[in-house]
Amino acid sequence: MTGVARGVPSWVATARDLYLVAMAVFVLNIVIGILNGSDAVTFDRNQILTHVHAGTVGWLTLSIVASSFLLFRTADRRLMLALAVLVPVYVVTFYTGSFPLRALGGTALLVVIGWLLVWVWQRYLGGERSLPRLALALSLTSFAYGAVFGVLLQIAFAMEITILPGDGIAAHASAMTFGYLVLAAMGFIEWRLLGTRDLPRLGVVQVVALFAGGLIISLSLLAGAEQAGGGIYLLTQLVAVVAFVVRIWPRALRVAWLAAEPIRHVAVASIWVVVALILFMYIVFTFISNPDDPNALPLNVLIASDHAVYIGVITNVVLALLSVLLLRADVRRSWVGQVIFWGVNLGLVVFVVGLIVDTADVKRIGAPVMGITLLVALAILAWTALREPLAASEADLDPDA
């Protein structure tokens, strides 16, 4: 790794190093995504699962943990190294198609996830109890139980037995998206846009409703009570969405959209949060309205919702943090900032629209624009991280500074 300037906290350097691992895994995800989204290559199920897990566990989770180091202003380098090794290994097991390897890799990673969960709750309970930190602690709790479901599924596949009741795959997938990723994003958005240092009542209602909804929908899928659970889920998500819009959008919509500042990525992420939640609420409503018709589930809308979360929400937030962490002010305010922001978000808009209307020609435009822009962004960020000493200070990472 490159050097660190004097005075830079060790937790900043640890976050930088984990971001680099996340970016390396993300490249694999993007390449498969571009080829698949443009219909240039037909991938088998194992390769698609590699793409999914390289994105969700590789890029998104490693980036969330790295961002948590910045939010909590502390880091455990041993924890970082364990994740940096085991997550890429776990992603590779999906490419092999071997259920035993997936079970072994997942079990080893699950131990480290338990370590991560203890780490984040100790930092929350023993330090500043703010809404952003509560959101991160709850989101990683969702990630932990979702990971338990996922590992149990892989063990069951390897042993050719049934462990989880009901729809275990859906329970795992639902836990890993809105109860985890969106909740984590809400914490980071709260931190960067509002700089919240306490526990405002409406904010607590917002994050607890989102966490509870994710837990309820997962448990209802396991219990075979999808309709009842889905109804409760829709209510909790509506509460969370309304509270989020009321609290966050007045600040988010006032950013200077044409100015190449990292805060734009956080602001647009707040818009994608609502888009993604509305799309998923529509999916849940459709599902519980037609429980006996599997063909009624709009898979294209589900994929659109997922990408709205993966790229629109989390990736935008991470790009904002990486720009502050790695790029000099003159660089991020130049054409670099403009190309990254507009290329990623306009490409995503086109891709999501293409998915919703189920038009291949539109998807073939959006996927390459979004993917190539992301590759350019990663190249610039990685080049800077590896070539220039890390100089970001605590003040640089303070939204109120």
Unreliable spans are none
Helix content: over 70%
> Ends: how far apart?
28 Å
Q: How many helices?
A: 14
Rg computed from alpha carbons, rounded to a whole number of angstroms:
20 Å
Strand content: under 5%
Mean pLDDT: 89
Estimated structural class: mainly alpha
H and E order: HHHHHHHHHHHHHH
Q: Give the overall silhouette.
A: globular
Could you tell me the number of beta strands?
0
Largest sheet: none
Task: Name the descriptors.
401 residues; single chain; mainly alpha
Q: Can you describe what's shown?
A:
The chain has 14 helices and no strands. It is an all-alpha fold. Helix 2 crosses helix 11 (299-326) and helix 5 (131-159) packs antiparallel against helix 6. 49% of the residues are buried.
Q: What would you say about this model in short?
A:
With 401 residues, this protein is an all-alpha fold. It has helices spanning 10-37, 45-72, 77-96, 99-126, 131-159, 168-175, 178-194, 201-223, 226-252, 263-289, 299-326, 329-332, 335-356, 360-387.
Detail the topology: elements first, then pairings.
Layout (H helix, E strand, L loop, with lengths): L9 H28 L7 H28 L4 H20 L2 H28 L4 H29 L8 H8 L2 H17 L6 H23 L2 H27 L10 H27 L9 H28 L2 H4 L2 H22 L3 H28 L14
